[in-house]
Amino acid sequence: MKYIGALLLALPIVISINLFSSPSHAISSCNGPCHTLDDCTGQLICINGKCHDDPDVGTHVCPSTPSPSGGGCQPSGTMYCQDKSYPKYSCSPPVTSSTQATLTNNDFSEGGDGGGPSECDSSYHDNSEKIVALSTGWYADGSRCGNGIKITSTKTGRSVTAKVVDECDSMNGCDGEHANQPPCRNNIVDGSKAVWDALGLDIAVGEEDVTWSMA
């Protein structure tokens, strides 16, 4: 009887250990926590520990959210091309002394992926120049043309001053004028190879987090 009584006393402890030692495999929805692709519902994928729409599939399961710098900038419509949908923006996040942005790479030379000549001066540029195109909202109808902006890499901590020569069009795309590229996101600093080199970044990565301000 003592032996049976001891087993009965130990049983709740064993059950308790089993309950708390089993890992959770809950399926997460939009912006829910995740560790692997299987942790997200439907076509959502795990990016930086949260479930998001798959950019390669073009799903829009999750409600649109403001860009990283906030400011309440919402899409101005949707463009459909190449069997995918892309939000269009006429605005960008507010410019501050440390504006969060995504750095991408643009070939500003003739025949490059920038499409037509730069909007500021209707000219092509050598990629050895430290130059950038800004998203439509930041381009502000060309009011920043010729101005210098200071860009700082979040990864390397290095900074560079580059001249604004073009718009990264957030309203139009998918045509010859835009080298058949989709509309630009609203938080993009599209830099030449010289800008990437000055920041100590690898163009092959494709995108890097930066901050920028007027120089």
TrEMBL record:
Query: Single GO cellular component annotation?
Result: extracellular region
The listed locations are: Secreted
Keywords attached to this entry: Secreted, Signal
Q: Which domain of life is it from?
A: Eukaryota
What span is annotated as the signal peptide, if there is one?
Answer: 1-26
Look up keyword Signal and say if it applies: yes
User: Pfam families this protein is in?
Assistant: KWL1 (PF24300)
KW Glycosyltransferase (keyword) present: no
Q: For the region Disordered, what residue ranges are annotated?
A: 102-124
Kindly give the Gene3D superfamilies that the UniProt entry links to this protein: RlpA-like domain
CDD domains assigned to the protein according to its UniProt record, in alphabetical order: DPBB_kiwellin-like
As for family, the record states:
Belongs to the kiwellin family.
Task: Return the protein name.
Answer: Kiwellin
Q: Species name for this entry? A: Eucalyptus globulus (Tasmanian blue gum)
